Amino acid sequence: MSDKTQYYTTTGKGFLVKARHYLAEGDLLQASEKGWGAAAQMVKSVAEARGWPHDAHHHLWGTINRLAKETGDTDIRALFTLASALHTNFYEGWMPVEHVADNLGHVENLLLKLETFNQTSGFHE
């Protein structure tokens, strides 16, 4: 794993820890943004490892779509969509605590799935 790939992976995991901390404190906006950040950083990690672009939101969505097609795991799309809802919630603040907590659980599942791609794939395009 390259230094940059490792950086994105470590940052993503760290953001999820911070998201749970903010959730416990009742700061739903920061919990939401760190949850989104965790997902985005892990997608960047996979994209970096594969030599795919990842410097814009649409690249992250493209990476998720490519991974879903490659693996046949369409849950990846659904999990990333839930992470994106957290990003929106940071700006809008409409999500109740239960939704933020649930979505952080989905982000954790996404991170676990994405991390396995970095461990098992030598794929480069």
In short:
With 125 residues, the chain is mostly helical. It is built from five helices and no strands.
Features:
single chain; Four Helix Bundle (Hemerythrin (Met), subunit A); 125 residues; globular; mainly alpha
Describe the secondary-structure layout.
Elements: H1 3-25, H2 28-50, H3 57-71, H4 75-92, H5 97-120
Helix pairs in contact: 1-2, 1-5, 2-4, 2-5, 3-4, 4-5
Task: Please tell me about this protein's structure.
With 125 residues, this protein is an all-alpha fold. It has a single domain (3-120), classed as Four Helix Bundle (Hemerythrin (Met), subunit A) (Up-down Bundle). The chain has helices at residues 3-25, 28-50, 57-71, 75-92, 97-120. Helix 1 packs antiparallel against helix 5 and helix 2 crosses helix 4 (75-92).
Question: What does the average pLDDT come to?
Answer: 95
Name the CATH class: Mainly Alpha
What's the N-to-C terminus distance?
16 Å
The number of E-state strands comes to 0
- Total helical segments: 5
Show unreliable segments: none
Total of domains? 1
Strand content: under 5%
Q: Name the shape in a single word.
A: globular
Write the element-wise H/E pattern from the N-terminal end onward: HHHHH
CATH topology: Four Helix Bundle (Hemerythrin (Met), subunit A)
Per CATH, the architecture is: Up-down Bundle
